[in-house]
Amino acid sequence: MNQLTPNEQKALLFVTVALILGSGIKAFGWSNEPEKRLPLSIETTGVIARTGLNTPQVPPNTPRSRPRGSTKSIPGTMNLNTADAAMLQRLPGIGPVIAKRIVTYRSKVGAFKSLDQLLMVEGIGKAKLAKMAPHLTL
Asked: How far apart are CA 114 and CA 131, in angstroms?
């Protein structure tokens, strides 16, 4: 059997220690880098499997999640002077509080004569009015 030279012994010891340390770091997650995991998806067989895709496979007729605030059904148009608070909430950017403010303003001042009057309602600015205007009539 061949004997290893002192330099070969040092090199072999270094490689062995490096492998052991690397395995320990990998096994116990001692790393500063975030772990890169593959997304999970459920295959048609019902078995959870890791895939290499950035997005999970979604069957064609499955409803997709929507961004926050876009779960409302936006109407074609609605009459601002006859819409109740529930209907107004279907407008983009309008929740129950602002819908109630619109109805209260309308009951105090009377029918809206222009959409720009919505700027008088607290919580409605030019940007929000611009999003709502295509869906409103007088």
From this structure: 16
